[in-house]
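User: quick one - fold this with adenosine-5'-diphosphate bound?
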Amino acid sequence: MKVALTGIKPTGILHIGNYFGAIRPALRLAEQYDARYFIADYHALNTVKDGSELRRAITGIAAGWLAAGLDPERVVFYRQSSVPETFELATILSAFTPKGLMNRAHAYKAAVQQNTEKGEDGDAGINMGLFTYPVLMAADILLFDADFVPVGRDQTQHVEMAQDIAGAINYNYKKELLKIPAAAVQEDVAVVPGLDGRKMSKSYGNTIPLFSTESVLRKHIMRIVTNSQGVDEPKDPDNSQIFTLYKLFADSGEADSLAARYRGGGMGWGEAKEELFRVANRELSPLRERYNALIAEPERLDGILASGAEKARTIASRTVKRLRKAIGIDF
Ligand code: ADP
Ligand code: TRP
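Assistant: Sure. Structure tokens for the protein plus adenosine-5'-diphosphate:
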């Protein structure tokens, strides 16, 4: 079976954009492929420098994926930090990575440009972790012989860099030591709108949390920005983020009949929000219960991740052994 591998960066708490845009599609893929999904905690360290915040984010993301339905018997699910082979492979890869390749990475270039625009030194505030980010990501991928890597469009350059680095090693040792991975960008994934109608994103502060209490979920939904149309006026469902969100949670019969009510007039935004809350809460309640149960039982969560790490290390140690032999460091 082909191997699908992806990393999830634990920065912040999960929102419903992450659920529909990343978690659900990845869980679907896991039904067809040999999936290896991990929490990229050392990637998060580049930006999250508060220990308890990072710890909370890692736990929250792990519990979130499991609560959303990730089956740890099917998917190898682990923390990056539990697989030390990653860091050894990253060191090996560094010796084959031209510095110029890192200079061309979009994320690094964007950070330099921001500095320059502010009149600061180009490298101000940029740590080596950010600069060499693509090498660590290549190690994550190449360690597990991934055939393809489901990622958002912004990450495809990183996967191409993993291809380049793997190619350089295979060429040097005249051997197919590392599998060349391909990026898999899912084009049909929904872009979930946020409270203000822009793309939901933690950087815009317009999110609806995936695992809040019922009352917090309701409060967020009630905060969705609307236009000033009165209760009686007919409304266009296709131009309303309330309806776009409703469709994600409702079945098609429900969506059709609510669309007709929007168009017919007589339904105010407050009621539209209540309808959204109803279907959102219906889908999210069981997830919330599973999430809370996992958070309340950290030993169980740790046990699941530890058994994932064990499976991951079995694969990873084989790759590192193969590499060590080829490079001549196999004493
Ligand atoms: P954020 O934009 O909140 O920082 P991340 O960049 O951490 O979110 O995204 C993690 C995953 O969730 C990515 O795969 C990303 O494509 C997906 N995602 C985030 N926001 C949305 C959204 N509004 N609609 C669809 N997918 C999203
Ligand atoms: N860079 C990815 C992101 O920001 C996270 C990530 C780390 C990753 N390592 C990976 C994704 C390996 C895919 C494969 O979302």
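One thing worth noting: Residues 13 and 60 are 7 Å apart (CA to CA).
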